[in-house]
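Appendix B, Record 12. Input sequence as logged:
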Amino acid sequence: MKIVIAPDSFKGSLSAVEATKAIERGIHKAFPDAVTVSLPVADGGEGTLDTLVAATNGQKVPVFVTGPLGHKVEAEYGILGDGETCVIEMAKASGIPLIPREKLNPLKATTFGTGELIKQALDDGFRSFILALGGSATNDGGAGMLQALGLSLLDEEGNKISTGGAELTKVSSIDLSGFDKRIQGSQFLIASDVENPLVGPRGASHVFGPQKGATPEMVLLLDACLAHWADEVEKVMGISLHDLPGAGAAGGIGGAFQAFFPSRMRRGIDVIIEYTGLETALKGADLVITGEGQVDFQTASGKTPMGVAQTAKVQNIPTVILAGSIGTGIDVLYQHGIVSVNSIINKPMTLHEAIENAADLLAQSAEQVVRSFFFYQTFKSGKVVQ
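Logged structural output:
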């Protein structure tokens, strides 16, 4: 019996590594002799750096940068095992977890620290980058990142504007003369599962702004600011970010990368699958267990469980999802090799209780899932599964 364990993090409670260990514990309680292969994964958002560094036996480099609201934070970039590829996870420098919920403010939040991370990596000699987008507290179109890399954003009087999403409406001209020349001699792979355009009803502000603290009034203002920003970028770079797929990723930083960097975009989960060697690990497996905190209709659009299941389906290996909570529209998942979606909550409890006991709940659910699955396999075949 071989089981591949490949969950994402259960945000707010367990990292992907911790979730993997809990699932493994549950499996071995049911079947002590089972062969388990642990591959913590991510989809391009939070946890991507840790996953890629661990999978390739890489390392992390700590860097003090400007946080999303201007305070200094200790971030880090990753170096893959090849010693040549640098991983920048923007949430480390510009993410929601760096701000108390009551202080979230996308009008002021900046990606300046993400630019500082990239600059430090360039100073350290790296020219090959994986950029993990997701979990951002920002809605500044990536302007702060560009400013940290030497781009000058000027108002009507020729003065440099400040940072933050609300400042974009002041941009009257873009001066490229100070923009870091090393960028054009580098390569950037953008890992993101977001295909939203920059502006409009499906744009960064409307879709992702509320989770970053934006009120309905702020959403309208931020969308107008990004539209103005896109107009100015088009004048200088000749590329329209307004409706460009992926430009709305991480508060619009996806658009900044596409306009100002030699870059290409891939689904985050596809990047992770490649670097973790999931396809190879699946060979000879009987079952795959994946999971994340919330599973719903959005899971089908490139989230970790979907990417894992699609990869397993190619080899005709069934996939089971374990989830902290299950939302609406999950029926579509069953078309992609997923045989069941299971909540780890086993009785009425508060959110605090669920978070505090997440590891034990996940282990118990994994135990019950494998007992049921392999009992059925034994019953169907008439053979004893070990």
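The chain is about 35% helix and 20% strand.
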